[in-house]
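From the pipeline queue, job 12 of 40. The input is one protein chain; the requested action is below.

Action: predict structure.
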Amino acid sequence: MKIFVPMDSAAKALGAEEVVAALRAAAPEAQIIRTGTRGMIWLEPLVEVEIDGVRHGYGPASPEDVADILNGTSPKALGPVEALDWMARQTRLTFARVGVIDPLDLADYEAHGGLVGLRRALEMAPEEIVAEVTTSGLRGRGGAGFPTGIKWKTVQEAKAPQKYIVCNADEGDSGTFADRMIMEGDPFTLIEGMVIAGLSVGATRGYVYLRSEYPDAIAVMRRAVEIARRAGVLGKDVLGSGRAFEMEIRVGAGAYVCGEETSLLNSLEGKRGVVRAKPPLPALEGFLGRPTVVNNVISLATVPVIFEKGAQHYADFGLGRSRGTVTLQIAGNVARGGLFETAFGITLGEVVHDLAGGTATGHPVKAVQVGGPLGAYIPVSGFNAPLGYEELDAHGGLLGHAGLVVFDENADMLSMARFAMEFCAVESCGKCTPCRIGAVRGVETIDRIRQGDGEAVPLLRDLCVTMKDGSLCALGGLTPLPVESVLDHFADEFLPRREAAE
């Protein structure tokens, strides 16, 4: 009997280890395989039992459910997992193996299409590799959406004795967990993507900058690097090609601003994590002053499937300039939270009302914040917005890392605006005045509004303009986005406070 149980952090937090212990005690002869999560977090811990080659799900499981699961009489039976509506409606490219394979079994990885892309890339010239990524339309999945092919081409054409690939795994946005899920559930795809990136630009060394708050991801990635090195996927002779690429895992100290690429590079060099002025761009003077590709986890983890299936196959999904798939992370006040990978173009309304099933409280949805703590709060009236970089921008939103946090009608939007400014004040690296001082003044100004000072509203708007135009990086530059969205869409929440004060 084969039984699959996630070792993902979310599943562990919900009791997966206790369920595994009960399974081992009740069925010592069974083969228990630990996987990543399928992304249906409301069903975790999800136990899958293979029956005639088909994996049947049971969840959310508890130790008390084990006996019924093993004898096939559990009321928590879900049927074939792949046929569940949440799974069947997805277009899983980047996450095709997550929840399916043992994350640290390289043979299992290869059996499910792993290393096909790398072997193809090894037969291509660097210029051809870059052209393939460019044709795919892949853009940065970390926030800015910058075309990956252009970034790689810049580094490729730079002249230097040493170049680097840096993976930004400092996933700090609220409501985001896609990077963690990949690293815990399919780490070899990230390693493979980094090797392909190295081949394309002439880099022989890479680093994964991983946040300290992800101990499981750190452990899995370190183990995966060791396994890949022993198997010849990393080292001086990648898969016998004569090409070299080595990498290591570095752990950050928990600063949100280190998710910004230049601050990350400073931290990686052992310096204080403060933002660098640009130019020069990291693509020309990055880690240790050398040309450096800095890409997000999902960006790099998507590269192998592009080379496995072809650039055009990937580019055929999506809309406009947003090609391929988007990995939606649905969180907050929702009935069904988790990760859903689909082609760009799905609307916010479909995600929130259909996939997420509305709110967990049963109260009407009031707003959804898209793109982390620096993303705009989009009201229900804007739920017809399709999820794409330019399309969401046209609705005043920011796609960012594609994290969605849902709020019901009881949410205090003025408090949400205040939180954005307070968050910036706490997390600012302190290098530029608009961010360092502006966020503090923003908190004070919102407190004045809360106390009934209507004249402070124009002042808050002016402050937002100053922060957007004058901040050195996106932390200060984007903090006004959630604040202005509250001012634009929920201005009536300010009125009772002013009237009450009068």
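Job complete. Residues 215-230 form the longest helix (16 residues).
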